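Handout, section B. The chain below has 353 residues.
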Amino acid sequence: MTKMIRQSLVKFDAPLCQTIIDTPKPQGREVLVRIERCGLCHSDLHIQDGWADLGDGKKLDTTRGMTLPFTLGHEIAGIVDEVGPDGDKSLIGTKKAVFPWIGCGKCRDCLAGDENLCARNRFLGVAIDGGFATHVLVPDEKYLLDYDPLPTNVAATLMCSGITAYGALKRLVDRPRQRNLLLVGLGGVGMAGLSLAQAMFKQPISVADLNPAAREAALKNGAAFAYDPAEPDVAKRMVKETDGGFDGVIDFAGNDKSMNFAVATVARGGKVVVSGLMGGNFSLPMVQWIYKRMTIEGFMVGTLDEAKELMALARAGELKPTPMTEEPMADAQKWIDQLRAGKVVGRIMLANA
């Protein structure tokens, strides 16, 4: 039997290590995908740690229900190796991207098509084994997406950084004022957001990030303006330069500093969408909320239908490429460390030989 090689989480808050098991046999409508590429996401760090930061020294335990060893990774693309007895045999040998935000299939959210909201989810690389491996077992063939003529690494990154940025931006498309847009945080999701924003909006796109290399990369990839949030009085200057602030702000970082920055730069009647998970605790005086007439919405990943919309947009050639670097799957822990240290610009894509 073919062996499955995994970069496994065997202990929380500890480095990944290689484990080898028999490749699982798909049952029912399950599909076994041989992984070609899997992206490294900042949320993989939270899962490895076993907690998320709630601020004020409090932590959210994210280990509940997880069995070790566990395989991280949710930005997956590869080749269908095998299907279950109830599956479509014609899928074998085809190249597919894998939608990872899979629900229980039975609750009211799943039945409404909102599997990303499912409380009993089966998210790949989050709740069940994911893509830092040679193979992944996908619960149903309906979660496989065609991606030709896109490169495999681009198709993979669309399944998290792409769909997260796309879904967050969609929350701004119906706003009554579309004068400008600010993206805060230029990690993998933020860079994907910059590419998507240029395809979805006509207004100038500004960005903000602490990393000068990220700001430079954003300007090269279409940003109109790039700001350093640590610069003294920069929020006041931005509001003055934009004649009142930004109608739409997306916080791709998601910590107390980034949210305070977003609220300081959003225009009256504007909207802030928060999709970052760096953590912390954010508070806002109620009178400021009311006086600014602002809307704040939390958002994480997207639906299967939104993934299909995004894939169609990408396959039509509407998106600019985002910064991406390919590295060996066996070096997953090395690049986790680099990402944790803030030394990654764009997306790291882990590749199987």
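Note. The chain has a mean pLDDT of 95. Compare this with the example in section A.
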